[in-house]
User: Which sequence fits this backbone?
């Protein structure tokens, strides 16, 4: 624990605020009240797994920040979710997966060149606010980020559902950049967040998940009532576009593949556009699924 506390202290010093450092250390020390979970943390060597010279280490990210994944999680739930995430990765994916995702430039899920512009989608450990979601699917054009969708693996029983492993989408962030115009020009009648969601579903398909969970707008850890409409559009409204079902006023359940309106029920004027949009989504889902299968332990036989 001393090693992790030292890292928490050193990274806290960058804030140049003694109160902030002390608060981080006190928050980290709560781990001592959960000895079984602490043992699990060390047995999985999570501190070593998260080390990346290019980003803050933050090995106790699920403890030292005000929230982790959801504003409504208790401390015990936060610990459960973090351990379930890393345990699932350990049991399901190869060492090469962990190396590429946590210590290098990630796994390429999809790429497409359009009008001499290179669009890419990668899965990588979240490089800024890990506590908003351990992993991120990032859509970029010519190495300029357009959108990030973050998630983790967890057990659905944390939401009062039956016990099964799934994914929780906990962050959806579209960047404000002039490069968004390039996306609009190349992929008409589409949106970056739809592409990222399709990639997340492709990852879910790799894991044979039939559904995924997605955070409700007012449970997202950065939620502020002042910006309620923006959060609602980025989270709840997005999930509802795909006929998601609300669970316990906390999250939404999405079908995998995404549930969409049958094409024959779409107005004939818009049917061609809908078909083209869905063709891209399907392409991304299948590409992400194929990319991830390579790293599944079950595929190494």
Assistant:
């Amino acid at each position: 624990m001393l090693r992790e506390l030292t890292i928490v202290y050193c990274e806290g010093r960058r804030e140049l605020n003694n109160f902030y450092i002390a608060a981080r250390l006190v928050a980290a020390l709560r781990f001592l009240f959960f000895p079984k979970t602490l043992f699990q943390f060390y047995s999985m060597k999570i501190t070593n797994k998260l080390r990346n010279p290019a980003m803050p280490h933050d090995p106790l990210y699920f403890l030292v920040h005000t929230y982790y994944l959801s504003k409504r999680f208790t401390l015990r739930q936060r610990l459960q979710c973090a351990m379930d995430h890393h345990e699932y990765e350990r049991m399901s994916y190869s060492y090469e997966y962990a190396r590429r995702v946590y210590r290098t430039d990630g796994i390429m899920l999809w790429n497409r060149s359009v009008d001499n512009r290179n669009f890419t989608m990668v899965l990588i450990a979240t490089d800024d606010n890990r506590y908003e979601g351990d992993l991120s699917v990032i859509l970029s054009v010519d190495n300029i980020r357009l959108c990030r969708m973050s998630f983790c693996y967890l057990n659905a029983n944390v939401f009062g559902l039956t016990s099964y492993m799934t994914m929780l989408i906990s962050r959806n962030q579209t960047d404000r950049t002039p490069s968004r115009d390039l996306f609009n020009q190349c992929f008409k009648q589409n949106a970056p967040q739809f592409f990222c969601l399709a990639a997340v579903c492709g990852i879910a398909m790799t894991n044979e998940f039939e559904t995924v969970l997605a955070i409700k707008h007012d449970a997202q850890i950065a939620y502020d009532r002042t910006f309620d409409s923006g959060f609602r559009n980025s989270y709840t409204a997005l999930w509802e576009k795909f006929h998601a079902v609300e669970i316990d006023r906390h999250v939404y359940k999405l079908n995998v593949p995404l549930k969409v309106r049958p094409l024959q029920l779409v107005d004939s004027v818009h049917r061609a556009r809908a078909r083209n949009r869905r063709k891209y989504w399907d392409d991304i889902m299948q590409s992400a699924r194929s990319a991830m299968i390579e790293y599944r332990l079950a595929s190494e036989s």
Q: What stands out?
A: The first strand starts at residue 107 and ends at 114. Residues 94-300 form one domain. Strands lie at 107-114, 117-125, 135-141, 144-155, 165-174, 211-215, 245-247, 251-255.
